[in-house]
Amino acid sequence: MARIVSTVLVVALLAGTAAAFALTEGLKLQPAPISAVSVPRKVFSPVCGCDTASASVSFRLRESDVLDVSVVDADDDVVATIVRGERFPAGRVELEFTGRDDDDLVLPEGEYRPRVHLREDKVTTVMPNPIQIDVTPPVVEAWEARPRVLSPDGDRRADLLTVRYRLSEPAKGLLFVAGRKRVEKRFARTEDVLTWSGRVDGRGFRAGTYDVALGASDPAGNLAALTEPMPLRIRYVVLGRPSVTVAAGARFAIRVSSDAERVRWQLGLRSGSARPGTLRIRAPRQKGRYTLVVFANGHRARAAVFVRPAPEARP
Question: What does the mean pLDDT of the chain come to?
Answer without folding.
Answer: 90
